[in-house]
Design a protein that fits this description.
mainly alpha, single chain
Length: 105
C-alpha cells in the first residue's frame, strides 16, 4: 500500500508544463532554442546555412529529471517522444536500428 501512495504523489506533482520544472535553466533554455530553430527551419529553410540536427540526447545521473523535462518540453512544442534507455539498448546495431526507424518515420 505505501508504494501506491508514493506513485500517486509522483503523478500528482509531476511537471505538466516546462514552467513546472525546477532547476536546469541553462538546459531548458538550450532545448527551447533548439526546438525553436527546428520549427523556424520547417517554415523557412532559407534562413539557415544548414538544417538543425533533429535529434538530442539527454544524459546524466538517474533522478535529475531528464525524462520529465523531455516529456513536458516536447509536449509544449507538439512533438512526439521516442525514448531509449541505455539499460534496454545494449548494442550499437540495436540502437542504429531504432534510430533508423524513428528518423525514417
Amino acid at each position: 500500500m505505501p508504494f501506491e501512495k508514493h506513485e500517486q504523489w509522483l503523478q500528482k506533482y509531476h511537471p505538466k508544463k516546462v514552467s513546472d520544472v525546477v532547476g536546469n535553466t541553462r538546459v531548458i533554455r538550450s532545448l527551447k532554442e533548439w526546438l525553436n530553430n527546428i520549427q523556424k527551419y520547417k517554415e523557412d529553410p532559407s534562413l539557415f546555412d544548414e538544417p538543425p540536427v533533429p535529434i538530442v540526447f539527454l544524459y546524466g545521473p538517474g533522478g535529475v529529471g531528464k525524462t520529465s523535462l523531455a516529456q513536458v518540453i516536447l509536449k509544449q512544442f507538439n512533438y512526439e517522444l521516442y525514448e531509449m534507455n541505455s539499460g534496454e539498448v545494449r548494442s550499437k546495431k540495436r540502437m542504429q536500428d531504432i534510430l533508423d526507424k524513428v528518423l525514417n518515420n
